[in-house]
Specification:
Elements (H helix, E strand, L loop, with lengths): L1 E2 L5 E3 L9 E4 L6 E6 L5 E6 L3 E6 L11 E4 L4 E8 L4 E7 L4 E7 L8 E6 L5 E7 L4 E6 L3 E6 L4 E7 L5 E6 L6 E5 L2
Antiparallel strand pairs: 1-2, 2-3, 4-5, 5-6, 6-7, 8-9, 9-10, 10-11, 12-13, 13-14, 14-15, 16-17
Keywords: WD repeat
Organism: Crotophaga sulcirostris (Groove-billed ani)
Pfam families: WD40
Amino acid sequence: LTGAQDGSVRMFEWTRPQQLVCFQQAGNARVTRMYFNSQGNKCGVADGEGFLSIWQVNQTTSNPKPYLSWQCHSKTTSDFAFITSSSLVATSGQSNDNRNVCLWDTLVSSGNNLIHAFTCHDHGATVLQYAPKHQLLISGGRKGYICIFDIRQRQILYTFQAHESAVKALALDPSEDYFVTGSAE
């Protein structure tokens, strides 16, 4: 799956030189993050205008439409994570009201699908990591802060400054004992 600055999103197969599907043509907002869900049957694309779009991967048409597309953040959606069986999605980004980490239910109509919005990261959340064993979300912000959320209780557990500049990467070890942060500096 490839995403570009021009907003185009294309899927390729290792053994074929031509694209299989063009999910999104050029001319849209820049792609900020893309993932497949754990089952491999859906892909999501976040963009610089705050939208998250989700497609079924097993499309027979060459230019399919997303089955879900909604604006998660008023400025940008920088990262997201599929939670559980892809019906729950967490997003990070920047919104005017500082609700920069959100939980969404994809099975509910788009006007009611926001489950919870965390007010955190004054200048926006840049990255997000889901820890399924512990049911935690870890987010990094533009000012170097890390927030850890309990998604069952829908509350922030910890906040601390890990870097002097924006957090650009988060990685979680498979046993969920440790996580690593990387910053713009």
